[in-house]
Design a protein that fits this description.
Layout: H1 12-22, E1 25-26, H2 28-31, H3 39-42, E2 46-50, H4 52-61, E3 66-71, H5 79-93, E4 97-102, H6 104-111, H7 115-132, E5 140-144, H8 149-161, H9 164-171, H10 179-193, E6 206-211, H11 215-228, E7 232-236, E8 239-243, H12 249-262, E9 268-271, E10 274-277, H13 281-294, E11 304-308, H14 334-343, H15 352-358, H16 366-375, H17 379-390, H18 396-424
Helix pairs in contact: 6-10, 7-18, 8-10, 10-11, 12-13, 14-18, 16-18
The protein binds tryptophan (TRP) and iron/sulfur cluster.
């Protein structure tokens, strides 16, 4: 479902638009409260979020939280996928439970990929790299959509609340679209929400790290989460209001009883179809969730999200699997990848003299971007590159050689770890013969 791209250009101005028009919040505001921020966070590569404060709170107070993402098993695993994988793994390392879907129902229905190819590509491209990058079985679930009954059942249930107009506005469905393709869209929402099913840990903050163009899916799923819930809680006129269109009278009674545990009865007022509470909204939400679960509801929290910038293709344009020179895959020959780096578009000047006099343009340099996003973990080191480039002290030849060397080293190491990961598949419950 990559064809939807409401924000085609990836310049900073367009990211600003995301804040203003779509209600995405700037990530900067949260940074100070994150103990060991990931390099994408420190470097402004993750620039926006929805509800990520709930994840930060959970991380800081030791409460449960999760992270999830999915990959369509098509094509080769590349640096763009690595970004999402790292983000998921980072959340696992911070104590979250993490989920990774192989979106085989999506690939099969949208791209026509056979089930055998889905399995092979899922394992041999994506899962091996995921494990090689540090995804661990404890508190980590890797699954494919087609073999997860919980996800498929939830998708069906979500389909009750999803209507064709909204779905086609987001996914571009038309009369020609096959039905399974449409179903795969609700399966994606089910991927996102299933970590909050009781059997996977229950309602809790779960973050979906995505690229900036994926926000429509997030908004859709946040909307569906809300529609699935029995009770709706919000603040108005100094009161916390609990509404429900569908909760039976008995559920309201149970809720009133539960509220009376935490609140003074004078602060609770019952009406037909709603309850007002004078008190802290967090505590009200806790009580509502308990009761909703008790009476068989979902009590989903809206999924949180983070948004990262896209990398530029090595040739300066878009990064695209159909342009091999624009992209480095995690399985390609390290030497060949090094050569791609040597041929990549830099922010260098026409001549050495000019470069010495005016300095280079690291912000327009794909080689700098590779170091910033992937190759240099140490912040001072990457800053030094930038400063030396700007000052005209660093020449592109030297700089590219260094980046190419780092890329080769990374790939050699990563590919060794991928080999080792083959032995570890059973730890993740994956049965596969190479
Ligand atoms: N649709 C995503 C893609 O195009 C894959 C995907 C499936 C996904 N389920 C997901 C991504 C849940 C994030 C969360 O690759
Ligand atoms: Fe890019 Fe390095 Fe050249 Fe600067 S010196 S423009 S960072 S390749």
């Amino acid at each position: 479902m990559n064809e939807i791209n409401p924000w085609k250009s990836t310049s900073i101005d367009d990211y600003q638009k995301l804040f203003d028009e779509f209600g995405i919040s700037p990530f900067d505001d949260l940074l100070a409260n994150i103990k060991h921020p990931h390099r994408f966070m420190r470097r402004g590569i993750i620039f926006g979020h929805r509800s990520y404060d709930s994840i930060v709170d959970a991380m800081n107070s030791g409460k449960p939280f999760g992270a999830m993402s999915g990959f369509m098993p098509s094509g080769r695993v590349h640096l763009g996928h690595k970004m999402v994988m790292e983000e998921i793994i980072w959340h696992q390392q911070q104590g979250g439970t993490v989920f990774m879907a192989v979106a085989d129902m999506e690939a099969h229905s949208v791209r026509g990929t056979s089930w055998d190819d889905c399995k092979r590509i899922g394992v041999e491209e994506y899962i091996l790299s995921l494990i090689a990058l540090g995804f661990e079985p404890e508190g980590g679930r890797i699954y494919s959509q087609s073999t997860s009954p919980e996800v498929r059942d939830l998708a069906f249930e979500l389909g009750v609340k999803a209507n064709f107009s909204e779905m086609s506005a987001i996914y571009g469905f038309s009369g020609e679209t096959n039905i399974a393709h449409m179903v795969s869209a609700t399966v994606q929402s089910a991927d996102i929400l299933h970590p909050q099913l009781q059997e996977f840990g229950g309602p809790r903050p779960v973050v979906i790290p995505v690229g900036a163009d994926q926000d429509p899916h997030i908004r859709l799923t946040r909307g569906l989460a809300d529609k699935m819930n029995l009770f709706h809680v919000f603040q108005k006129d100094g009161l916390v209001k609990i509404y429900s269109k569908s909760a039976p009278e008995a559920a309201f009674k149970t809720l009133a009883k539960r509220l009376a545990v935490d609140f003074d009865t004078d602060d609770i007022t019952m009406f037909q179809g709603h309850i007002d509470v004078k008190g802290d909204i967090g505590h009200v939400r806790d009580a509502v969730r308990d009761v909703e679960l008790l009476v068989g509801g979902y009590a989903f929290m809206p999924p949180a999200s983070t948004y990262h910038k896209f990398m530029t293709g090595l040739q300066g344009g878009k990064m695209s699997s159909s342009i091999p020179e624009s992209i480095i895959s995690l399985t390609e020959d390290p030497k060949a990848a090094g050569k791609k780096v040597m041929r990549a578009k830099t922010g260098g000047r026409m001549t050495l003299e000019e470069q010495k006099e005016h300095g280079g343009l690291p912000d327009e340099c794909t080689v700098y971007e590779l170091m910033l996003y992937h190759l240099v973990e140490d912040d001072t080191e990457v800053l030094e590159v930038k400063q030396q480039c700007l000052a005209g002290e660093l020449m592109c030849g030297t700089c590219k050689k260094r980046a190419a060397g780092l890329m080769e080293e990374f790939l050699i190491d990563h590919q060794m770890k991928r080999e080792a990961a083959k032995e570890r598949l059973p730890e993740f419950g994956i049965d596969y013969k190479f």
